[in-house]
Amino acid sequence: MLRHSPTDTINFAGRSIFVKRDDKLHPDFSGNKARKFYHFLINDFKNVTRIVSSGSAQANSLYSLSVLAKMKGWQLDYYVSHISKYLKSQLQITPAIASNYTQAHANGANIIEVDWSSPKLSGCKHLDDAVSIFKPEYYKQYTQQEILFIPEGGRCDYANTGIYLLGEEIISWVKAQNITALSVFLPSGTGTTALFLQQYFKECQTELLDVQVLTCSTVGGDLYLQKQFSALNPDDSVHPTILNDGVKYHFGKLYLALFALWNEVLTTSGIEFDLLYDPIGLSVLKSHIEAGQCQNRQILYIHQGGLLGNATMQSRYHRKLMNKR
Questions:
Q1: Average pLDDT of the chain to the nearest whole number
Q2: 191 and 240 in contact (C-beta within 8 Å)?
Q3: pTM
Q4: Which of 4, 150, 253, 275 could, after both became Cys, cross-link 53 (CB 3.0–4.6 A)?
Q5: DSSP tag of 24
């Protein structure tokens, strides 16, 4: 289950690169979040009745956790900083526009917009901090065995179960292809997948096999991403290499240049990528290749999945393009 996604070859930025098609893992549970939440899917948490997490109302993790909760018979409480009027309006449309938000709602997720004006949240800046404050209220109703708290974006040690399996798949593929030097690239939110992959490859490194992880920040910038790596593992020798294209991106913001690149790659490769993370990753990788890097290395790009959110993002981009005219 949720293993052995295929690998395609595409022409990108003037050269041939490989794409690990994690979008094909499962129709409802695919991509980066399927790898991170794999531990919770395959293990028996017989006493659990509720999971609590947080993130963006547009995040892939919201939908993935709603699928996980539905499969397991759990209730999901998912805290968000803000739900836009546009997202809320989607629930009034019949049929509702398919998006991470609407589909998670249809799966029974309890999506809670945090009231930052509440005195109890005074001084809180992050969702994880807010959830920590809410924990005592949950423990008045549930025992620790009945509830699971999953950090934003799946940033926890449990994530290495699925990510190490991804690493195993990549190493097996590398050996079958007789590749000796490989750069694995993926965009990062919390950086959990990139870190655990680099950690796994470090353990597998030999004189005949050189695999490195390259990534870029899609949330908060390079310094934020470095702090996320250090929080999970303070040993910087196993931290991935962070790249950028000179732009500090804001999560969920529309960038017409990225939309143009996304459309270009869709047209030339026939592969639909996610519109939140992948366009930033593709832009940074394109800049890296055009700067003459990775000339003597093969490149494997890991597809981030999360295609359900594309309908909403495309609608937003089309409105932006219309307003620009």
A1: 92
A2: yes
A3: 0.91
A4: 150
A5: G
